[in-house]
UniProtKB/TrEMBL annotation:
InterPro entries found in the cross-reference section: Kinesin-like_fam (IPR027640), Kinesin_motor_dom (IPR001752), Kinesin_motor_dom_sf (IPR036961), NACK_C (IPR021881), P-loop_NTPase (IPR027417)
Alphabetical list of SMART domains matching this protein: KISc
Protein name: Kinesin motor domain-containing protein
Residue sites binding ATP per the record: G119, Q120, T121, S122, S123, G124, K125, T126
Keywords on record: ATP-binding, Coiled coil, Microtubule, Motor protein, Nucleotide-binding
Comp. bias regions, Polar residues: 485-508
GO molecular function, one term: ATP binding
SUPFAM superfamilies: P-loop containing nucleoside triphosphate hydrolases
CDD domains: KISc_CENP_E (cd01374)
Length: 846
């Protein structure tokens, strides 16, 4: 089993081989089942002498059948089918030609082949394999003679495995050989003699040597029984003569194995003893291992195949399910005395024919050729790596990048336009709010109508189908729909201040069907926006920033630019976003709007989510706006560094600011109405302290506003229906005024009860009452809740009233007192208790 010194075996698709015997397969190898043949030998002289009949019969070319000839022991015929069966009259030539030639001659095409003879002792294995080997070698030489264009080298080696010892049948020394495992070569025999054949006669001589060397012995069954497994290996190397000696020379290398197994035997049958018995044990042991391997292989599972259980299976591993085409000739004795052994042989053959091998054409490349080929491949790969991209490729790349840049520039331009537009709209919106505040502060009410520039929008549609309230909403929806660069003037809600005979006002709302007056429409009048529209406006403001920051972020990632805070962003710190309030800062109302207590005071900006690039004008502009917002929002945060945490927060803040603005306008209007309707000071105080500026408070405020508006509009016409007089509201203005006077008297008495002299002096000073004047407490009481436009005064009034009546913690119960709770469950009124402290919350909207 000599190694092919210095050569590397490469797998090669059979189709790629010069002469693929099998016609090739689609893959790197060809899956092929082991060919199993059965050969019946004639009855031996001894068997005939014993009168044993032949009980096995080949009924056709593929089926052998057992048919008992003993009438007293009838047995049902048993048929076994194989690839080919040969009856006793067939010659070895026929067996070779019709059974194994194709497999055996694969070797000349670079495909390994193995021919086995398996059967009980004296069944004709050696007889068959000797002939098959000779025929194969004869055909190989014949093939060589017919293919002069190829150069062939034939090598021959032979071993036997005797009592699990491997011996070199061609070696001078009769020493055991060791088996080694190699990743490339598999299991090989160390120091095995491999003879390069000169010619056919040379091989014949070597085979004779092997025959002479092989261990045989006489047994009861066979005068010259082979007591070992013999493996003859003929290695055929072929290469095209034209490439001989050249670098690109390759060759096909394959081996044909001729395996003559020792015969299975029963000790009782062979009458073996002593050395024969020991031999028989080893033979049976190794054959058992072979049978196990075949059986496991035939099952086709991925289970472990115990090749290493015997030296026989280790050496034959490539021929058993490996890289070889294999044919097994099962030899049978037809005699009755061997019936059980024959059956075992056929069972072995039945398993074997299920075993699949994967034969490949073995192309061998010399080390020199292999190195050169690998060097060539390395050079090619290096060249590919070094090769610059072609001009056309570069041009295409540059063009693509240019297009990307242009697209981004256009997007930036659009975003800038949208952002400026949104900014402008926001300023207009807030300016309108400011104007509306002033308007409300003056006590005037204006009817509302669609802005003149929107009239065409409305007239184009069927405006008669919608109410006046809806027309406002409709107008805003249209504005959103038609919004775009250059169209922001449509969103200038200040235009909504213009009068129109078709417009509605608050009074008409209240006088009309109350159910038709929505809170949202009320809110829209105060802000000049519907709530939906306001949110949509804010969304429109937000969207450009989101796109802008996303765009800048993408630009940053692609351009590897690290962005920092823009100078322009810093430079705008200190400016105010709310231009509308700028000019009104002198008034208490607008000072309180700017110096907004409550949530915004504690508002702290976190680290910026944006890394502004000083060079990025786009982000600078965005940062400017954000900075402006920060500044206006964080006005109480002196010298604070306005930072921005994200667009979402920005929008949330805008919404929050809008909500606060809205509620402030509501409360101012309510205060006006309280005053106009002579509403109880306690009621006012409760109500004022009740709310914290939550979004839900707007609902209660709007209800209160509706009720007050109704009263105010009803009072001039006479008394109010009792069913609408709720809470502290009186049925007439006179009654209300009297009640209010009594309340002020009560509060004056409370000052005497609840406050110390020192506290009262402090109170007089604070409320501008001369310390030496008369009825100082009453003077203070009469000044409470009188400056309706001064939220600071309102706050002080509420604080004092609350203190005097012992109100500490307004809560939900107060809402129910006012009939403002929408919760189904009624709560009991709060238990009053007097207090000298000033412990009540300050509403965030005043
Ligand atoms: N097909 C055949 N035609 C004629 N004679 C045969 C045939 N097969 C075998 N014989 C003869 O039968 C005898 C036993 O054959 P052989 O030695 O080849 O058996 P074996 O299976 O190798 O036995 P063992 O396992 O003991 O070595 C030999 O004398 C052989 O010549």
């Amino acid at each position: 089993m000599g190694a092919i010194g210095g050569d590397k075996l490469l797998e090669w698709d059979m189709m790629g081989g010069p002469e693929a015997v099998n016609g090739g397969g689609g893959g790197v190898g060809k899956l092929d089942r082991i060919q199993v043949l059965v050969r019946l030998r004639p009855l031996s002289e001894k068997e005939i002498a014993r009168g044993e009949p032949a009980e096995w019969e080949c009924i056709n070319d593929t089926t052998v059948m057992f048919r008992s000839t003993f009438p007293d022991r009838p047995t049902a015929p048993t048929a076994y089918t194989f690839d080919r069966v040969f009856h006793s009259d067939c010659s070895t030539k026929e067996v070779y030609e019709q059974g194994v030639k194709e497999v055996a001659l694969s070797v000349v095409s670079g495909i390994n082949s193995s021919i086995f003879a398996y059967g009980q002792t004296s069944s004709g294995k050696t007889y068959t394999m000797t002939g098959v080997t000779e025929h194969t070698v004869a055909d190989i030489y014949d093939y060589i003679s017919k293919h002069e264009e190829k150069a062939f080298v034939l090598k021959f080696s032979a071993i036997e495995i005797y009592n699990e010892v491997v011996r070199d049948l061609l070696g001078a020394e009769n020493t055991p050989l060791r088996l080694w495992d190699d990743a490339e070569k598999g299991t090989y025999v160390e120091n095995l003699t491999e003879v390069v054949l000169r010619d056919w006669n040379h091989l014949k001589g070597l085979i004779s040597v092997c025959e002479a060397q092989r261990r045989t012995g006489e047994t009861f069954l066979n005068e010259k029984s082979s007591r070992s497994h013999q493996i003859l290996r003929l290695t055929v190397e072929s290469s095209a003569r034209e490439f001989l000696g050249k670098d690109k020379s390759t060759k096909l290398v394959a081996s044909a194995n001729f395996v003559d197994l020792a015969g299975s035997e029963r000790a009782s049958q062979a009458l073996s003893a002593g050395a024969r018995l020991k031999e028989g044990c080893h033979i049976n042991k190794s054959l058992l291992a072979l049978g196990t391997v075949i059986r496991k292989l035939s099952m086709g599972s991925n289970a472990h195949i115990p090749y290493r259980d015997s030296k026989l299976t280790r050496i034959l591993q490539p021929s058993l399910g490996g890289n070889a085409r294999t044919a097994i000739i099962c030899t049978l004795s037809p005699a009755t005395s061997h019936i059980e052994q024959s059956r075992n042989t056929l069972l072995f053959g039945s398993c074997a024919k299920e075993v699949v091998t994967n034969a490949q054409v073995n192309v061998v490349m010399s080390d020199k050729t292999l190195v050169k080929q690998l060097q060539k491949e390395v050079a090619r790969l290096e060249s590919e790596l070094r090769r610059p991209a072609s001009n056309s490729t570069l041009e295409a790349l540059v063009k693509e990048k240019d297009n990307q840049i242009k697209k981004m520039e256009k997007e930036i331009k659009d975003l800038k336009s949208q952002r400026d537009s949104a900014h402008s709209r926001l300023q207009n919106l807030l300016r309108t709010v400011g104007d509306r505040s002033k308007h409300l502060g003056s006590g005037k009410r204006s009817t509302r109508s669609p802005p003149s520039e929107l009239a065409p929008e409305i007239s184009r549609d069927d405006s008669s189908q919608i109410s006046n309230d809806d027309s406002d909403l409709y107008k805003e929806v249209r504005c959103i729909e038609t919004y775009g660069p250059g169209q922001n003037e449509q969103l200038d809600v200040s235009a909504g201040e213009s009068s129109s005979p078709q417009g509605s006002n608050m009074n008409s709302d209240v006088r009309g069907n109350g159910s038709n007056v929505s809170v949202n429409s009320r809110r829209s009048r105060l802000l000049g926006e519907t709530p939906v529209t306001l949110e949509q406006h804010l969304e429109n403001i937000r969207r450009p920033f989101v796109s802008l920051t996303r765009d800048v972020g993408a630009h940053n990632s692609s351009g590897s630019r690290v962005l920092g805070r823009s100078r322009s962003c810093r430079s705008l710190t200190g400016s105010t976003m709310f231009d509308a309030t700028e000019g009104d800062e002198g008034t208490p109302l607008h000072r309180s709007m700017v110096d907004f207590p409550g949530r915004l005071e504690g508002y702290n900006r976190r680290g910026s989510a944006l890394n502004n690039d000083a060079e990025s004008e786009t982000l600078s502009r965005a940062g400017s706006i954000l900075s402006e917002v920060s500044t206006s929002k964080g006005a109480t945060k002196a010298n604070g560094d306005p930072e921005f945490t994200g667009i979402g927060e920005f929008v949330a803040e805008l919404k929050e600011m809008a909500q606060v603005h809205y509620q402030k306008h509501l409360i101012i209007e309510i205060i006006e109405l309280w005053h106009a309707c002579s509403i109880s000071l306690v009621h006012r105080t409760y109500f004022f302290l009740l709310f914290k500026g939550d979004q839900a408070d707007s609902i209660y405020m709007e209800v209160e506003l509706r009720r007050l508006s109704f009263l105010r509009d009803t009072y001039p016409r006479g008394s109010t229906p009792s069913n609408v007089v709720v809470g502290s509201l009186s049925s007439s203005p006179v009654a209300s005024a009297k009640k209010l006077q009594r309340e002020r008297d009560m509060l004056a008495r409370q000052m005497q009860k609840q406050l110390t002299a020192e506290e009262r002096e402090h109170l007089y000073t604070k409320w501008g009452v001369s310390l030496d004047s008369k009825k100082r407490k009453l003077q203070v009481a009469r000044r409470l809740w009188t400056k309706t436009k001064d939220l600071e005064h309102v706050r002080e009034s509420a604080s004092l009233v609350a203190s005097l009546i012992g109100l500490q913690e307004p809560g939900q119960v107060l809402r129910e007192m006012f009939g403002l709770s929408f919760a189904p469950q009624q709560q009991p009124p709060p238990r009053r208790r007097s207090s000298n402290g000033w412990k009540y919350g300050i509403p965030s909207f005043g």
